[in-house]
Amino acid sequence: MIETILLNFLFLLFPVIIALVFFEDKLTSLNKYLIVVLSAVTLVLCMAFPIKLDLGFIIDLRFIPFIIIALFGGYKMVFPLYLVLNGYRFIIGGEGTYQSLIFSTVIFILVPLLSKKFSQQSSRGRILYALFAGVFTTSLYYFALGFNYQKLTSEFWLLTFSSFVVNIIAIFIIMSLIEKIITNVKTREIYLRSERLNDISDLSASIAHEIRNPLTVTSGFLQLLKGSKTISPDEKTYIEFSLQELERAEKIVSDFLTFSKPQCANMVYSDFKKEIEYVENIMKPYAKMNQVEIQVSFTNTLKKSYDENQIQQCFINLFKNGIEAMKENGGGSLYVDVSEQKDHIAIVIKDSGIGMTSEEISQLGKPYYSTKKEGTGLGMLMIYSTIRNVKGDIKVESIVGKGTTFLITIPV
Length: 412
Ligand code: ADP
Ligand code: MG
Hints:
By secondary structure, this protein is α+β, with helices and mostly antiparallel strands. Helices cover 65% and strands 13% of the residues. It has three domains: 190 residues, Arp2/3 complex 21 kDa subunit ARPC3, CATH 1.10.1760; 65 residues; 146 residues, Heat Shock Protein 90.
């Protein structure tokens, strides 16, 4: 019996290992369906090689892939498994086919209901949810079986108990593996992102410093020249233009400098209200030009210490991206909400623009990654670096064609 249990466990590991080896770095929708197919294979194998007990009872682990896919993928992804399970059950035939159909239908309807809550949980929460779904399914199964069974002998209870234990242990191990894989992928992504930021901030800070000096010297000499009495008014205006342009160049250099460590000169201790209002005002004309309306709601009272210029620039970039995403959809509304939640400030920026695929989301923050014709691909980099400087976190939710929501949480 132990051998069959181990064999069944191997079946369960099969999709997990394939996913780990082949699709760990990118889970595209195609790969998601491949995982469903692999899970279907597991399910069939579990049914084909059940664990046989003395009394002629059998235990199988078919509901484990079923539950896990139902929790991660909801109705849409578990439906093929539901078909496969019942299709194969009909091929096997024999007693209990209809009971199995009814039972699997109940599970098919109930378990995916948890899916949404499940996806909002932490790693540990998801494991608990899966265990709960497992306990529920197995209990329901033996409850139904108990009804069909006239005499509830001690053997029946022993069987129930052992099946229970096998199922729960198997779910626990498989879910722990899956969650560990997910955590590893996430950690690596965070690490890569901060590596990139480090590289670019070192580079840009040194270049910006180098360029700033000649700019200052040149503008100093031009100032002197402007004061000269021997130059004509025409020449004076040329010098003014040159000075203006130099000033602009200096601004651009300063923007680059914001990639690097926070500068104490601009540090403030505040609640983001002033910065949001400022950015709303300066972005209004640009929004209007693209038929976008900006709607801000501000309820935050928590304060935080941050670099004012950096935060302004970060909001400008976020607003600009939102507006640009809606520009292609013929306009819309950009919702901005700043609120407080216990010990952190929550900033939500929501547009109804073109949206992104999950692959595109994972590219965000890479230097020079842009899908726009005249994009710089530096906006998101600056946003990530700024939020990192205030120890905050950015979540991106996006649906292609529907829009994007940036959720920024900043601990105080
Ligand atoms: P740029 O705006 O110059 O292209 P960013 O770094 O600001 O560079 O943005 C990088 C890319 O991220 C954009 O080209 C776009 O594809 C994507 N992006 C950013 N914000 C959004 C958004 N709100 N909606 C859709 N796509 C976005
Ligand atoms: Mg941008």
